Amino acid sequence: MVDGLPVMSVSEVLAARAAGGLKNQAVAVGGYWSNGSIGHSCAPPQGQTGVLEMGCHDGEVGITELDEPVIVIDRHGNVTPPRGPTLTPYVPRDLAGLPELFSLPYINGQRYPPVPIVVVGHFDDPLAAECQPKSRQLCLDRLVVDRIAIFDPGAVPTPGISPTPSPFPSPAPSGLFDPTVCAGNVPYSLVGWTTTSELQLPFDREGHVWAVVTRDPVLLGGDGWYADPNGSTGRYRPWARRICIGEEGDFGAISYGLVPGSGYWEWEDGHRTPGDTP
């Protein structure tokens, strides 16, 4: 029992919800939490979407009934779904304990194992009203987490050491991801192996990395306009030449950076402000 509620399994929760239950009440669900997401963007939605829709990121993190990852995406984009029931809840940004859910470290070159978790939440959240009509039921059926009752990564045995990556440059591993994963079907000035120091990135990676660099500035952060953080009534969109890198043995994870000096802010009135800030 948690908060006076029986802890339900993922399959019990899904079955009860499919039968029209668990309305207007708190729900406790237990299972295994994991984060299998990698850096990527979704196709632009048709119209305004609600936060409970989650787009193409739905299913990349969440709670599984079995002790298994919620999803595994390898460096070539191949997807291995879980064998058992799973659900992806909505976790509010101000929820206590949120950072711990999404900052599980890599251990010996491998993703952190699934962590036992119990959360208390609810369905039929009012935020579902912001979803597109075609997604309204999906949003009503989204578990919204109110409290993380149990989550202890330290209690999970960590994986052993991964095999040593193949040496570079001979034999050189193949490309770790298709360039279009970085910024779409745009021209690229670099597609190949290099180092983070050569790319002048603000972070370091040991040895060589697989990198793609856009030839021209690309729109960052989606198609929307952002309010001026300095308080004016103007709105802007950020542009820059994007850098995407991957490391051998890093399970398809992609890190992002920008070519120094390539960034600018495009304002609604048409003028541009060079650099990373207006």
Q: What's the SSE blueprint?
A:
Layout: E1 7-8, H1 10-18, E2 27-35, E3 61-64, E4 72-73, E5 79-80, E6 86-87, H2 98-102, E7 115-122, H3 136-140, E8 144-151, H4 180-183, E9 188-194, H5 196-199, E10 209-214, E11 218-219, E12 226-227, E13 235-240, E14 242-246, E15 255-258, E16 264-267, E17 272-274
Parallel strand pairs: 1-2
Antiparallel strand pairs: 2-3, 2-7, 3-6, 4-5, 7-8, 9-10, 10-14, 11-13, 12-13, 13-16, 14-15, 16-17
Instruction: Give the biggest beta sheet.
Output: 6 strands, mixed
Strand content: 25-35%
Helix content: under 10%
Given the C-alpha coordinates, what overall shape results? Answer: globular
Given the helix and strand composition, which structural class is it?
A: mainly beta
Q: Radius of gyration, rounded? A: 21 Å
SSE string, helices as H and strands as E: EHEEEEEHEHEHEHEEEEEEEE
Count every beta strand, where a strand is a DSSP E run of 2 or more residues: 17
In DSSP terms (H or I, runs of 4 or more residues), the helix count works out at 5
Mean pLDDT: 84
Low-confidence runs of at least 5 consecutive residues: 161-167
Between the first and last Cα atoms, what is the distance in angstroms? 53 Å
Description:
It contains five helices and 17 strands. The protein is mainly β and 278 residues long. Strands 1, 2, 3, 6, 7 and 8 form a six-stranded mixed sheet that branches. The protein is globular.
